[in-house]
Design brief:
The chain is mainly alpha-helical. The chain has helices at 4-24, 29-36, 39-57, 69-75, 79-107, 111-124, 126-136, 151-156. Helix 3 (39-57) runs antiparallel to helix 5 (79-107) and helix 5 (79-107) runs antiparallel to helix 6. The longest helix has 29 residues, at 79-107.
Length: 160
């Protein structure tokens, strides 16, 4: 029988595997296939969707809510809702970490600079994305200018 504790003990190592791969082997084929492709975050999303579906279909589904802090506290007294909330964090934080790694690679952000961003994203979610947003400003994408924005293309687009 699946219990919230059982699913918690499975979801945590899955997320940890993703974070370890992002931190120590960001360009490894296994990292690209499991984390950067989105497979691990999506696996966590499936767990979340199933837990939410089962929770709200059950008798505990009407307890608590999101309209007040007291309702949220009441909602998370249920172990299934608490598990869903935790898996929600695991899924979104790992998805953000994978995005940070992909974006850093495209921009040429040094991995040593990315590591603290990933650690903060893992431990404190929004703080990590703030840190990465600040870091990425120093590494703009080096894309070729769009033909529509070069001075020559702008002047040639108007009849003389």
């Amino acid at each position: 029988m699946l219990t919230p504790a059982t699913l918690f003990s499975v979801a945590n190592p899955v997320a940890m595997l993703g974070w370890v791969l992002l931190l120590i082997a960001p360009r490894w084929t296994v990292t690209r296939r499991l984390v950067l492709s989105g497979i691990l975050p999506l696996a966590l999303a499936v767990v979340y969707a199933v837990v939410i579906g089962v929770h709200y279909a059950g008798p505990e589904g009407s307890v608590g809510g999101f309209s007040s802090l007291a309702d949220v506290a009441l909602l998370f007294q249920d172990p299934w809702a608490l598990l869903a909330g935790w898996v929600h964090y695991l899924c979104f934080d790992l998805a953000i970490g994978a995005w940070e790694a992909r974006d850093a690679h495209r921009r040429g952000v040094p991995h040593l600079l990315l590591i603290p961003c990933l650690l903060f994203t893992f431990l404190l979610g929004p703080v990590g994305i703030l840190l990465y947003a600040a870091a990425r400003r120093f590494y703009p994408l080096n894309l070729p200018p769009s033909p529509a924005t070069t001075p020559q293309s702008v002047s040639s687009s108007y009849p003389s």
